[in-house]
Specification:
Order of helices and strands: HHEHHEEHEHEHHEEEEH
Low-confidence stretches: 163-169, 262-274
Strand content: 15-25%
CATH architecture of the largest domain: 2-Layer Sandwich
Number of domains: 2
Distance between the termini: 64 Å
Structural class: alpha+beta
Mean pLDDT: 83
CATH superfamily of the largest domain: Endonuclease Chain A
Shape: elongated
Largest sheet: 6 strands, mixed
Strand order of the largest sheet: 4-9-8-7-5-6
């Protein structure tokens, strides 16, 4: 019930209108007095909402005294709402003023639902290319949108981490000053049409944080990182035994050579980049 009321509110109905429509759909028909009594609210508020819904065509008012009201069948209601929403969207798209150029900026997104919603909207707008660096858990949540993009002819470039794979080729930089790092998170990044990107972290408790931007510098950094990961992966696949034979244990330390370890942590050593 709460989910239904939430979606009705998302479609533009007030909380009172939503409850009245559900009540009428449950009963088939009812008077304003009966609806008010069932909902435990004032008759004046119910009659005002019923008048609005009747004028908009979502509710029918029968003849008689007292008047009895009924809501449209779900299919008819959905068709009417969809038509009006599509008409409003089309008008907004064509008539909304378009200002001058806007400098690329960064904005933060908090919350799993908000992050996934923003990402899904952008994936549905993709025209040419989607570059994905993501864990399989997050990819599974977006499977439908990614499959639809491929069907539209959008090129997908993937980098997956399934959780049981070998450690990433890049070292993890420790936090400075001994500040604790929040654990249990999975990083992800998406670059869409080389003009929009999202970079963030999703945690086991369902929380998420992400940065979204169209700034060309961050887009280029993410694309370069993706390319380097893929190149290194293929080199290790093709030359793994040779690399191990030539470098031995030193091979596993090459990347960490360029990490600045914090002197105040338990991490070893000092600045090793020379």
């Amino acid at each position: 019930m709460e989910q239904l009321l939430l979606h009705l509110r998302n479609l533009g109905f007030t909380e009172m209108e939503s409850k009245i429509m559900v009540e009428l759909a449950t009963k088939g028909e009812a008077s304003g007095y009966e609806v008010a009594k069932q909902l435990g609210v004032s008759r004046s508020n119910v009659y005002a909402a019923l008048q609005r819904l009747t004028q908009q065509g979502y509710v029918r008012c029968g003849e008689g005294e007292p008047a009895r009201y009924s809501v449209l069948d779900p299919e008819e209601l959905a068709t009417m709402i969809s038509g009006r929403v599509q008409a409003s969207l089309a008008y907004m798209e064509s008539e909304m003023p378009r200002g001058g150029p806007v400098s690329p900026s960064f904005y933060n997104i908090e919350g799993d639902r908000n992050m996934l919603g923003a990402l899904i909207r952008q994936l549905n707008l993709a025209e040419k290319e989607i570059v994905v660096d993501v864990w399989r858990e997050e990819a599974s949540l977006l499977r439908n949108e990614l499959e639809q993009a491929e069907l539209r002819g959008v090129k997908l470039l993937w980098a997956f981490d399934g959780g049981n794979a070998a450690p990433a080729p890049y070292p993890v930089w420790p936090p400075l000053g001994g500040k604790p790092r929040r654990g249990g998170g999975r990083k992800f990044s998406f670059v869409i049409d080389r003009s929009w990107c999202m970079l963030g972290m999703r945690y086991e408790d369902g929380t998420a944080q992400a940065v979204v931007t169209e700034h060309e510098v961050l887009i280029e950094l993410l694309l370069n990182h993706f390319s380097q990961e893929m190149v290194l992966f293929e080199l290790e696949e093709d030359m793994g035994p040779e690399l191990t034979k030539r470098y031995g244990e030193r091979y596993s330390r090459i990347y960490s050579k360029y990490v600045m370890h914090d002197k105040d942590t338990d991490e070893p050593g000092k600045d090793q980049a020379e």
